[in-house]
Amino acid sequence: LKRILFVDDEVRILDGLRRMLRSKIVDWDCHYCTSANEAMALLEASCFDAVVSDLNMPGRSGLDLLRDIRSSEIHGRLPFLMLTGNGELSKRHEALQMGATDFLSKPTDFVELTARLTNVIAIRDYQEEVERANQLLEERVKERTRILEQTRHEIVLRLAMACETRDTDTGRHILRVGSFCRLLALEIGCDEEYAETLLLASTLHDVGKIGIADSVLLKPGRLTEEERLLMQAHCLIGYRILSADGPEQLAETVKVRPERNEILQMATRIARWHHERWDGDGYPDGISGADIPLEARIVAIADVYDALRSPRPYKEAFTEEKTAEIIMGASGTQFEPALIDAFVRRRVDMDELYLRLADDVEEISIAA
Ligand SMILES: [Fe+2]
Fold first, then answer.
1. Residues 6 or more apart from 10 whose CB is under 8 A from it?
2. Integer Cα distance of 308 and 231 in angstroms
3. Tens of pLDDT, residues 178-236
4. Å from CA of 28 to ligand 1 middle
5. What average pLDDT does range 52-72 have in this prediction?
6. Is 255 assigned a catalytic role?
7. pTM for the complete prediction?
8. Of the residues 91, 142, 209, 315, which is catalytic?
9. What's the gap in Å between 204 CA and the centre of ligand 1?
């Protein structure tokens, strides 16, 4: 049942409309009032599907009522039909500019009135339906995007953990490195998005170790010179796995576009350059200073910090003090001085993160 409000100061006209619309009683619930003020009070009290108003009324006119309705948040798009005399062209234009939906000439007849009303209500219903559909669609897209994003992040983490569990028991090393990186990035003024991308991308820094033989990777004790060189290959292996010119056939088959994925792009740079040194004495390329991508310079510190603090087959775990001493001592040689300054400022938080994500802590969460 559509609720329609008729407004006219002449009771005689309202009576005429009432009689005229008797046959529409099944479809329309018609209400009648004699002033703009009364109409606004009724509109505020309940919902209507259309308003039909006389233009000329003593006191507040049909234009005043139209203005009130259009400026209201709830009724802003309520269909509004203006009843006008044939000579009132300029008033009609004014009403049009103010947002009247349509006009009806006085005296009005049944066919015209019902047809116009039916049309404006149908258009309004259709508009609302389209809006609802759009909103629903938008919500679905948002939800799908969120799930996709979450899945993407989870796959990165699980891939990193799968590789990591080859040489440590828990895979916590990469989670700690990720958290340290995020902390250091924020400390030097990187934005939240960069820090989050770095957290995920850094977990793949040693993904190339998947291509290193067990006899080298799992060897207890010191590596020979030859084994050390084999081990160093993990940077380029990781780079090949993650970069666009690596799994070419795979990229073609499943339409993977690594160059468009910021996490993978960053992970590629990190995998290749996380063992470079600030002074150029690192590997695999021997690049130095700002030529080393920022993310790789950050991972270099986070990775070494974690390795020093954790027990390894060939060494005991170092204390926080000893670890910090070694890290700070390598400022300007192995590590970027500005990043070491940032590390010193956040030493306490690094320690807290290490303890919270330590291998022997049962429940962990990497949300910082
Ligand atoms: Fe590495």
1. 34, 54
2. 18
3. 999 999 999 999 999 999 999 999 999 999 999 999 899 888 888 899 999 999 999 99
4. 76
5. 93
6. no
7. 0.70
8. 209
9. 9
